[in-house]
Amino acid sequence: MTTAPQHASLRERKKLRTRQALAETAVSLFIESGFDDTPLDALLEAVEVSRRTFFRNYRSKEDVTLTAVKQLWSTCLEVMEQSEQGEQREPTEHIDQRGPTDHTEHLVDAFQNAMLTTLERMDEDWFPRFAATLQLIDQSPSLHGHSLRHCAEIQAGITRRLGAPDTLEARLLIEFCVATWRCALDEWLPQWTPAELPRCVRRAFDAMRHSLNPAA
Q: At what angle do helices 126-139 and 10-33 cross, to 10 degrees?
């Protein structure tokens, strides 16, 4: 989890510790007892916070459980935003000279690089919580539905930050990239060691490129 900056006030640090405790306890508690079978009150009792405090930090039981997933994608969007700002310094004539294949490769490369950079920014504690969260999503229909809605929102943000045109081809390519990321997770989850996930991402995107251009 993200730690509070040194200059943060005591109140801000306390709020962050509460958010961390809720998110971490939620995953461990729901893995042990089941997401759908465990009421929110059990989480509140375990962390010793009131409902009012909980809802000042999270919108729902689903929201707190998906903290690791949302941390991943919020960081990824930040990385893409920073990359986009850097690319604005590229000469316009270089961008205009790109052909359709170049645009496709550029978009895929940008997505893959953003995911790899994002993983580099995750601390070691994040990886087991992320793996456990994915397990919970797979086990719970309600949590799975909440995750799909969040994914749809994130894909819209990805499209904007990558500067993809509003075309059928671009939308399909973003869908392919997200599906490739999910395939990388499927390869990673049986072991889920932190160092293996970037390797799974690279293998999956190499396979995707071969599928899109088998003659290459």
A: 50
For residue 107 the two structure tokens come to: 């978009």
Q: What is the pTM for the complete model shown?
A: 0.86
The Cβ of residue 28 has, within 10 Å, a number of other Cβ atoms equal to 13
> pLDDT for 33-56, tens place per residue?
999 999 999 999 999 999 999 999
What is the Cα Rg of the chain in Å?
19
Residue 23 structure tokens:
């998110």
> How many Cα atoms are found within 13 Å in the side-chain-facing hemisphere of 45?
6
Query: What are the distances in angstroms from CA 180 to CA 115, 159, 174, 210?
Result: 11, 16, 10, 12
In DSSP notation, the chain reads -PPPPTTS-HHHHHHHHHHHHHHHHHHHHHHHH-TTTS-HHHHHHHHT--HHHHHHH-SSHHHHHTHHHHHHHHHHHHHHHHHHHHHTTS-HHHHHT--HHHHHHHHHHHHHHHHHHHHHHS-TTHHHHHHHHHHHHHH-HHHHHHHHHHHHHHHHHHHHHTT--SSHHHHHHHHHHHHHHHHHHHHHTTT--TTHHHHHHHHHHHHHHHHH-TT-
Q: How far apart are CA 148 and CA 55, in angstroms?
A: 22
Nearest to 18 by CA among 42, 38, 46, 60: 46
Task: Over range 130-144, report the average pLDDT.
Answer: 96
Task: Show the tokens assigned to 169.
Answer: 């081809």
Q: How many other C-beta atoms can be found within 10 angstroms of the C-beta atom of residue 14? A: 12
